[in-house]
Input
Amino acid sequence: MNQIILETKQISKSFGKVQALNNIDFYLYKGKIHGLLGENGAGKTSLMNVLSGVYQPEKGSIYINGEKQVRLTPDASLNLGIGMVHQEFRLIEDFSIKDNLTLSKTNIYIKDFKKAYDKYSKIFSLSAESNSPVSELSVGEKQKIEIMKLIFSNSNIMLLDEPTAVLTPQETDQLKLSLDNLSQEDGKTIVLITHKLNEIKQFTEKIFVMKNGEMIAKDLKTKAVSHKTLVNLMVGEITSSKVNKDNPKGEVKLRIENILHKKTESDLNILEDVTLSIKSGEILGIAGVSGNGQVELANIISGIEQNFNGNIFINDIDVSIKGVRARKELNLSYVPENRLGVGLAPGVSVLDNSAIKEYSAASYGPHLLKNKLLEHLNLLIQEFSIKVPDPKAEVSTLSGGNMQKILMGRELISNPEVIIASQPTRGLDVRAVEAIHSLIIHQRDNGTAVMLFSEDLDELFKLSDRIIVLYEGKIIKEFDIDKASRQNVGLAMAGVHE
Amino acid sequence: MSRYILVKKASIHDLSTFYSFLIGLIISITVGSIILLIQDQDPLDIFSLMLKLSVGSIDSLSSSLNKAIPLILAGLGIAIMNTVKLWNIGAEGQMFLGAIIVNLVYINTDFGSPSLHIFVLLISGFVGGSICMLFPAITKVMFGVNEIITTLLTNYIIIGFTVYLINGPWKDLNSLNFPVAAYVGEEVFLPTVFGRLSIGFIICILCTFGTYYLIDKSVLGYEMRITGGSRMTAIYAGINAKQKTFIAMLIGGGFAGLAGAIELLGQTHRVSTGISQGFGYTAIIVAAITGMRPIGIFIVGSLFGVLTIGGSVIQTVGVSSYIADIIQATTLFGALIALFFFTYQIKEVKDG
Amino acid sequence: MADVQLMGLVNATLQAATLLFIAALGELITEKSGVLNLGVEGMISIGAVTGFITAINTENIFLAITMGIFSASLFASLHAFVTVVLKQDQTVSGLTLTILGLSLSSLLGKKYVGRKLVTKIDSIVDISEPDTLLEVLLNQSIIFYIAIVLMFTVTYILKYTLYGRRLEAVGEDSRAADSMGLKVNKTQFIATCVGGAFAGLSGVYLTLSYVPYWTDNMTSGRGWIALALVIFGGWKPYRTAIGALIFGLLEALVPRLQTYSFEISPYLLKITPYLITLFVLVILTIYKDGKTGSPGNIGKTFFRENR
Output
C-alpha cells in the first residue's frame, strides 16, 4: 500500500509583506517520484526550504513517518533523512569532492568512502578524482556531486529544485534513469521541483501544483492528467504568445571576428576563434550549457572585459580597443546574466540604479539633477509597468521580475542598435516572462540586432531566427531556426558534432 | 507550547539609526553609573558635574566643541570613504602627518599676511592627510590590498615618525626634557570666536555641508556610490572605478589631515604626541553610530566632544578619565544591540 | 662575547614572538570560522590586566593565568554576541571592542600601576646570560612551550579532524555548511571565544613574564600586529609562527642595534617592524594575486533566511 512518509498541514510563511506560503497541505508517498509544479514565484522553493529546515514556518506542522516535528533546522532535517539539492548549488568550491561529501554530520560512508564513491561515480557516470576541488568540475558534474551528497548523507527524501535547468537534453535523460534507479532500487522518495511541463510528464508519477503561494492541486496522477489541465492550473488564463518569424532583416549591425580570450593565469582558452554577425531585425540565440564562455563573450562585446584578441564592429565601426563609453555612444545595450552584481549595483537605491546610462545627461557640471533622474525613473515605470514602491529603497527590495524590468527598461529606453541579453527571464514568473519576451520582439521589429544568451531551449526556439551553440568557448554549430530541433541542438551543447 | 522564530523585517524604519543611538546612550549612561557606583561615587553628582564643567559656561562649551572638531572632520572623512565601501582606520596617522606637513610648510615659508599663511597651512594639513593615504590607496586600487590593515599599520609608522621628529630634528630646546617641537608663531594661531571657540569649528560646519553635498547631490558622489555597490556595475556605467576609489580615499585622508592641522594651529600650537589621543578611532564609532550621515556625525561628534571634556575634568574629583571612552564605546555597542531589534523581529509560531 | 650577544638576541626574539604568536593563532581560529575580530588589542589588554590584578592579590600564578584567559574569552563573547547572534557589522564591533577593552583595562588597572609582582611566570631554568641555544631554550618560560604545542595541535585539528574541517567549512561557505547540517552560529560563537582565550593567554604572558608590570597601553599595538600576522601567514599556523619570529626579531633588534654601532635614531628603528610588515603584506597580496588563503566568508554576516 502507498505509505505516506511526509506530510505538511497548513504551512504558512511570509517575507515582509509577501506571503510566500499560505496554508499549504502537502504529502509524499514513500518510494515514489513526485513533481511539484508551478511557475516561478509560486512558492515551490519556499516550501522545499521549509522542509529542509532553511526557512522556519510561522504557522503549521510537519509530520515525518507520522511523527510531528517540533522544530526543523537543517541538521534536524538531515537527521530525519530529508536532503535538498538547491537551484544554486551549495558546494564549497575550494574544498575537495570528498570533503563536500563527507563533512555532513549524517554521513554514513566514513570508513568505506572509497568503495561508495567508486560505486556511485559509476551510476552517475562521473569521472572525477575524489580529492580534486569542486571548482574544477563542470556544472553538470557539480550537480551529480550534489545528488551524491544526498546519498552519502543517507537522505531518504530527496528534494531536487529545478535540476534540469543546467543540463543538456541528453544529461536530462541520464538524470531520469538515475532517479528511477534510486526510487525503485533504493526506495528513495523523490520530489522534482520544476516549472517545465514536459519534465513533470517525463519524470514523475504524482503531481502537486502550486500557484501564488497556495497548493491548488494535490496528488494528480501524471499519466492521467493532460497538458492543458496542468497549464490552466499553473498559470490560469495567460497563454504563451506565438512569435511571428516573418520579421524583415536589414544590414549587419554587430560583427565580431576571431575573438580569443584566455584565463589570466593558465593557458586555457575561454573563448577561441569566435566569429559571428547579427543583422538589424534579427535575433541570434546562443545556446550552451552554463560555463562554456557565454558570460565572458557577453562581457567582451559589451566592453566590460577588455582583455581579449579579435575585432568587434558596431555598424561597421571598430570598437575593439575602445571601452564601454564607445559602445554607449554607438547605442549598444547590455542586460547581463548577473542581474544583481553587474547589471544592478547591490546596496544602491532603485533611483541610482535606473540612472546608470543617463546620469551624465542629468547633471549640470558637478551637480546631479535629482529631479531629472526621478523623471527618467518615472518614464521607465510607466513604459514598462514596473512596480517601485519607493525609489530611494535599495534595489534588491524589488521583486525579481521588477528588478529585471528596471534593468531592461533602462537598457531599452534608448532604442538601441544592438542588445546583448543574457538569461533575461531566468527565475521570472510567466507574466513577467511574457512581458520581457514582447519587449525583445518589439525591439527586434524596430530594427535592433539582438543577441540572446539563454539556457532555456524553449525560449531560444521561441524567439530566435538563428541558433549558435557555444561549447568550450568555440562555436561548435550554427542552425537556422527551421533546421533546429531539441535533439540536434542538445547534441551540439554536449559537444557532439559530425 | 509556543515556539519563536527570527525573521528579518520588511523595511527598516527611517529613524532607526537615530533611535538606536538614543538607546545606546541610555545603556551607556546606565553602565557608566554602575561603574561609578562600584567606585563609591554618586552617578548623579558626577554626571551633573561633568555637564556643568563641559557645557556650563561659554568657555567650557567652546572647549568641548573644540575637542569635537577632529571627531567630526575625521568622521566625515570616514563617511566619504564609506561611499566606496572602504574603511579608514588610519585617521590617527593622517592627523599626525597633517600636523607634520603644516609644521614643515610653516618653517619653510613666509607670507606677509597671517590669514593667507593660515589658509595655506590648513591646505597643507589636508594635503598631508592625503599623502598619508597614498600608499593604502595605491595598493588598494592597483592590487586589492586590504585597506584596514594598511591604514592601521600606517598609523604606527607616522606616529613613530612623529616621535622621532620631536626627539630629534624638531626637538624644542626650550622644553626641558619634554619631547615636543617648537611652537609655531603666534601670527598663525587659529583665531577664535566667542572667546575660545576655534574657527576650526566653523570649518567643521562648512565641511559638514560640503560632505553632505558631495555624497548626496554631486555627480562624483553618485559615481562613488555605484562603485561602492559593485565595481562591475561601475565599469559598465563607464565609471572609472579605480579613479573614484582613489579620490574617495584621498579626500577621506585629507579631512583627517585637516583635523590635525586645526589641532596644531588651534590647540596645541606645536607638533607633539598630543595632536591626537585616539580620536582617529573614536571618529569611526561616531561615523558608524550615525549610519555615515554627515549631519549626524556633526551632532554626535559634538556630543562626544562634550563627553571627552567632561571625562577629563572629572579627574579632579578622582574619577578616571577613561570613563568617557567607556561611555563612548558602550554607546555604540548599545546602539548595535538596539539596531538588531529594528532590523529583526521575533515572531511566535502557531500550530497548524 | 659575541655568542652572548647573539644568544641574547635569540632569547629576546623568542619571547617577543611567543607573545605575538599566541594572539595571532587565536585570531586565526576565529577567522577560520568566518568571523573577523578586530578587537585583539582590547582582548590582550583585558587578559593582561586581569591576570596582573589576580597575581598581585592572590600571588597564585596558576589562578592568574586562568583568570586572564577566562576574562578575555568572556570579553570576546561580547563581540560574538553582537556579530553572530545579533548579526551586526563585524568591523565596527571589533574596533569598538578594542576601544572598550583598552579603556576598561586602564580603568581597572589604575590602582596597580607601578606595583611589583611577588611571583611571576618564571623561566624553566633561570639563566641570566644564556650563551648557547640550549640555554636560551631552557631560559624560556612554559608559555613558550605551550605556544609550540598549540601550534602543532591547532594545525593537526584543522587538517585532520572532523571538527577542524567543519570549522573551515563554516568559514569558507556558511550557506553550504548550513545545508550540510553544520551549526554555523554555534561554531562562530565558540571560535570567537577561543580566539579571546588565546589573546588572554598572550596578555597574561605580557604582564606576568615578558614585561612584567602594568601600565596604560602596555599592548602598544601588538594586537594589530597579530591581526596582520594572520594575513601574513596565509591563515596557516606554521607560517604565522614564522611571521611572529620575524617580527619578534625586529622588536628584539631595536634596543640592540646601537651595540652593533648603527648610526640610526632609535626612534626611527622602532618604526622598521611596521614598515617591513606593511611591505611584506603588500608583496604577498600582489604575489598571491588575490588568493591569499582567506576564508571565503570572512567578515560576512550569516543569516539563514537571507534570500
About this structure: Chain A touches chain B through 49 residues (CB under 8 Å).
